[in-house]
Amino acid sequence: MGRAAQVRRDEIVRLATTTGLASVEELSAQLGVTASTIRRDLAHLKAAGLLARTYGGAMAVVTHPEASLRQRIGEAFEAKRAIAAWAAAQIRPGETVLLDSGSTTGALAHELRHAVDLTVATTGLNALQELAGATGVHVECLGGTLRHVSQGFIGPLAEAALTRMTFDRVFLGADGVTAEEGICEASLQQTRFKELMMDRARHIYVLVHATKLGRRPFHAWARMPETWTLVTDATATEESLKPFTEKGVETIVVTPHPLE
């Protein structure tokens, strides 16, 4: 599948998730392709479990179960790689940073493997695996209760570990993020933990692929502080970014580069 098709399908998922029902004709006009192309896209997305088809259109599966880390790692790989590279460039030698669990923060850990004089604390197993051989990085595992679906630690032990440290920067993932309500996750335990992570850091970054913008897949929310930075990829539309910029959120759009 070409990049144009992937970008278009990501946008269909975002539109269906944020606005609900969308007709084939509306999608065809908005995305500038034929109705038959849209129908093929919808069939592909249905087979992937990302959308439920209705007569003449598409509707987001709002009750779709939380995707596993294994599923997420292969999604929008180039975009996540570019977001991670930008995030890594913000980190300075001597800093102490905190990485959330997730596929994009795991990609950030990969970018940090050759860092020098850096302390990284994380709740993600994939980040720990990426940094296991990074001799220039001091690694702290927050521990706690393992969520098998996300391969990340949460719970009282992880929360207690957070109280013993402060961080120059925290990098968070999200199942969805809105300007009004903040970060959306599958459980209140996750959102409480993200709020605690933000409380311990001077600079806060939310790293998300454009399909997560304006998305509300679950009913648990982490409220955002007054100042934070949203980092997403170039498939984000002006419409999806507008609520964040209007609210004064620093918004960074990163252009993915093809794999060499």
TrEMBL record:
It comes from the Bacteria. Gene3D superfamilies: 3.40.50.1360, Winged helix-like DNA-binding domain superfamily/Winged helix DNA-binding domain. Signal peptide: none annotated. Keywords: DNA-binding, Transcription, Transcription regulation. Pfam families: DeoRC, HTH_DeoR. SUPFAM superfamilies: NagB/RpiA/CoA transferase-like, Winged helix' DNA-binding domain. GO terms for molecular function: DNA binding; DNA-binding transcription factor activity. Residues 5-60 form the HTH deoR-type domain. This is DNA-binding transcriptional regulator of sugar metabolism, DeoR/GlpR family. It comes from Nonomuraea solani.
